[in-house]
Amino acid sequence: MDYQQQTLAVKNSIELVVVLYDGMMRFLHQAIACIESGDTAGRRENVKYTLDILTYLQGRLRADAGGQSAVTLSEFYAAMYSQCVIASRDGSVELLQETIHNIRNVRDAWQEISSSEAAQGMLPRDRQTREERHVSVRSAPVSISTVAEEPVAHRWSA
């Protein structure tokens, strides 16, 4: 296992989404460089990588678990996909820059979510063992006041 694989292996699902957003932005910056240098094949390849990531993220959404947030993300991914296709077809640096800006905004929101979980010392459910989930549920004191104060967490893939 190389360094990059080891780094990804210790990330939680939200951190992995942030990594995918970083990848999309990197590929779009490379596509812009290809447009500026006249490298049509390079532009197409980098946009294709971005489209692959968007398709993957779209496919991982679960509207049954994510509700309105998953629907909103689905619409966002569809819009970014469309922008990438149009920008690649037209060779539009401006549209790719706008797409990068939009992706960065959503990426920063994911990063904030990831940071707040890390700050609270939360271990994502998908990384907990069955025993850890059982112990945390049994050992957590529950009162009406703490239940009312806790925000409702919606979980979805991607």
What count of domains describes the coordinates? 1
Order of helices and strands: HHHHHHH
| Alpha-beta content class | mainly alpha
Q: Please report the distance between the alpha carbons of the first and last residues.
A: 24 Å
**Architecture in CATH?**
Up-down Bundle
Estimate the global geometry from the Cα principal axes.
globular
Largest sheet: none
Specify the CATH class: Mainly Alpha
Share in β-strands:
under 5%
Q: List low-confidence stretches.
A: 127-158
As a whole number of angstroms, the C-alpha radius of gyration is: 19 Å
Kindly identify the CATH topology: Four Helix Bundle (Hemerythrin (Met), subunit A)
Number of strands: 0
If helices are DSSP runs of H or I spanning 4 or more residues, what is the number of helices? 7
Query: Which whole number gives the mean pLDDT?
Result: 78
What do you see in this structure?
The protein is mainly α and 158 residues long. It contains 7 helices and no strands. Helix content is 78%, strand content 0%. The chain starts with a helix and ends in a 9-residue tail after the last helix. The C terminus is likely disordered.
Brief overview, please?
By secondary structure, the protein is an all-alpha fold. It has helices at 3-9, 13-37, 40-60, 63-90, 93-119, 130-139, 144-149.
Give a quick set of tags describing it.
158 residues; mainly alpha; Four Helix Bundle (Hemerythrin (Met), subunit A); 0% strand; disordered C terminus
